[in-house]
Methylmalonyl Co-A mutase-associated GTPase MeaB (Aquimarina litoralis), 706 residues
Amino acid sequence: MEHRDKSSKLPHSTNKSAIDRFRKLQQKEISISDIFEGIITQNTAALSKGITLVESTQQKHSAKTQELIEKCLPHANKSIRIGITGVPGVGKSTFIEALGNVLIEKGKKVAVLAVDPSSTISGGSILGDKTRMESLVRSKEAFIRPSPSGNSLGGVAQKTRESIILCEAAGYDVIIIETVGVGQSETAVHSMVDFFLLLKLAGAGDELQGIKRGIIEMADAIVINKADGDNVKRAREAKNQFKKALHLYPIGENAWTPQVLTCSALTKNGIEEVWELVLNYLEISASNGYFEKNRTEQNKFWLLQTIEEQLKSSFYNHPEIKKALSDQLDAIQKHQITPFTAAKYLLDKHKNS
Amino acid sequence: MEHRDKSSKLPHSTNKSAIDRFRKLQQKEISISDIFEGIITQNTAALSKGITLVESTQQKHSAKTQELIEKCLPHANKSIRIGITGVPGVGKSTFIEALGNVLIEKGKKVAVLAVDPSSTISGGSILGDKTRMESLVRSKEAFIRPSPSGNSLGGVAQKTRESIILCEAAGYDVIIIETVGVGQSETAVHSMVDFFLLLKLAGAGDELQGIKRGIIEMADAIVINKADGDNVKRAREAKNQFKKALHLYPIGENAWTPQVLTCSALTKNGIEEVWELVLNYLEISASNGYFEKNRTEQNKFWLLQTIEEQLKSSFYNHPEIKKALSDQLDAIQKHQITPFTAAKYLLDKHKNS
């Protein structure tokens, strides 16, 4: 009897709660390990479960998510990440399906993710309706996941970025990130991909819109879709116009000259060429070191981005600040105070609270 | 002896320090009051002194500056603020001088300020050389002040915004804010003026640059300068091109359609028309309430802007964070950690320090 271990001498209740804690710990270990093992053995159900965890907004899942991502990290970073944008109606789904099928024929595994912060409100304008990529959905080599929901672009983008890591650990060779051609989503997606592709239509008359919004500046390739039937000639003309527009921009440090292609996602014409262009890009940017450098820069960018969003959010969501900010805004409206004095007052209040 | 006041019972040293404090307080009161009285009685030397105080980076001046600005505030807000931008060589100084002289002939008092964060390095690319506005400098009705120096646009812009208040309290009817056509300075100036004017040259071939950089979107008027001699025809052509470009943009809530004019700052041709355009704008935006609304929105914008800059600066300049951030960036470079985990670590560290 003298050899019983110390824990059994504890009062019953404490002992029980210790056991419960141990069980919970065990369950957690098993659960995350299970998901992780599933992911690296390319089990799609496990990958889905992992992404669901990543997308969870519940505080209690946060530590688990981090654990899972850190386990996956050494297995990640091995894909090519392609961002695809274009206004609604340009044929993004059909294009992604056509490109995805070409890749699968070449023995690649393809994951399609999305960034669309509006999807909560609109009910998912992109990838929500998987039937639009019917043949890709049926393929075992493809994994398609709609945009995570959320009101802030920062939150949605973070979840997609983390999902990329899981998909890479699950052995997907090409990760396609789709986004809608509105707002800041394109900048966010550009900051998480290796190759950024702008999908266009001929004669849409929005050539200047892309310049205005800085999208053309980000594009590694402009692909003019629906170059079929009567449209072929117009697509060729548009190609020349965009080539001219691209000359406005200096060549970046990658030494890559953005290219303009035409294709028809419907007839599959020109899709193969898009992939060849991506491979060409990869070759150049891998050999001159830009590929690695860019990924590291992107990670650093996301670090700072996340910090700054968090600083703002914890300031503005502070209950005392909320009230005080509203008072200061009133005082500004009445010309009683300068914005700089009001800012100082609020910052001091925040520091002392 | 029983009637002596309490303070004289204090030990000599305390009493002396109390007197010193009182004297300093008095000096401070007198000094700020002097400057303030000088400003509202339109004394240029006092205004210069006040702006020097505003521009001071010394911590001890900060409270004084706030006091002065708050005193001036009820006397401010009565001018029209005009932002003027354009690339180097477009003739900003000559244009501002020509416009300033037209205004002075009409009995207006004109202050010219500037925002140029690069001026510390470049030695003041704008307004630094006052000889470029010779006749304006000599006029009693004009006040010209070069850009405050500083490395951060936020800091430079804040100082200029505060100087506007002092100039308005000193009775200047028109405040012209000049900025260079590079970087984010134009956005900052746009956020502190009522009317934003983009100065252009004919045939400079940079029409698309303005669209690309979002400057045309901000402009209430585009004025094509140097429309003289052989250049008149080209200027007229450029005018038509810019008119077309402006059609790309939807009319804002102000119901104002941005206008394109030609002028010659050299021959003074068309300068009067620029001022008429500004008056026309004022009439419309005052009658529909946009003028007031815009100023309030600008103040609110600067409140949030200042808060966010301060939050970032106090985070990144924290000694512990500086070291830790550098370590986390290393870990990111080595793919040992995700940017999100690193951000969480740093934010937790900051919270607990």
User: Anything to note?
Assistant: Confidence is low (pLDDT under 50) at residues 1-13, 121-125 of chain B. The first strand of chain B starts at residue 80 and ends at 86.
